[in-house]
Model the fold of this input.
Amino acid sequence: MSSGLHLRPLDGGDLSEVQRLLETSDYTYYHFGFEELPGLLDRLPAMGVFGDSSQVRPPLPNSELLAFLLVNWLVPPSAWLGGFGVPWGEGKNSDDYLDLLMPKVEELAWLAGARTLYYSGHDLDSDWLRAPLESRSFRLRGVLLSYDKDDFTIPDQGNVEVRIRPFAPSDVAGAVAIEDLAFQQLWRHDAGSFLQVRQAYPYFVVAEDDKGIVGYQYNTIDAGVGYLVRIAVHPRAQGQGVGTRLMAEAVRYFATHQVHRIVLNAEETNRRAQSLYLRFGFHPAYTRGFVLARDIKEGPTYSMVGP
Done:
């Protein structure tokens, strides 16, 4: 690695450099859609390693992004690593860049209220970042099972009495109430998160009865694949067919857009969700995802490299 490196926060002005790296290197990890990237760079902790001229804003043309690390989700006390990458020619130095970037990203996450940093990997057996992260005190937090479906059959319409409609900003309080009751801390959304989801995801609906919101669901589509991201049901309405109804509506949405297949993940311990997926014709995939976690034990004690 060159000694003439500078570390600084990234923002929307660095969008093209981050995109270039993501599009041209196999030494990358990202857990977001490209349409989300501008907002992530402007709102959440993100750091980059550049050459000497990068301290000039805007960076000079000969300034090249050599590595980046960013957070894609932060709801105190949890923050999720959402992207890391180095160019092809720097793959052998990826661990060194991780050591440069991680302390500062942790510092920024701490200042934003995070106390635990999480990483979600796609393949427990072959993820290229698993070993480097585990050697840096990340521990296995859980295993995620992957499921996919290549047709649009709907075996059960679920609870047809609940109303399904697009999520509106006025629904935030009701959705947050579901989070607090239905999810462990690391998976929870807050008010700001729901507004971000509304902006970034093409399909975001709520289920409501006469007493208010009893569930929600959101999806996205990328390269012809439908991603069923999340289904949530209020505990008072569980067992009443609300989750089944939300699943049926999701399959209809994907059918309208003629995706090649539908994919989703579930925690290995979430038997209720797995039962629903199997009933709808989803098949277990061969790969298993996973979650790593590391406590951010200290406050902001790091200083940036360079001026």
Residues 49 and 116 are 24 Å apart (CA to CA). The domain at 152-280 is CATH 3.40.630.30 (Aminopeptidase). The chain has two domains: 6-144, 152-280.
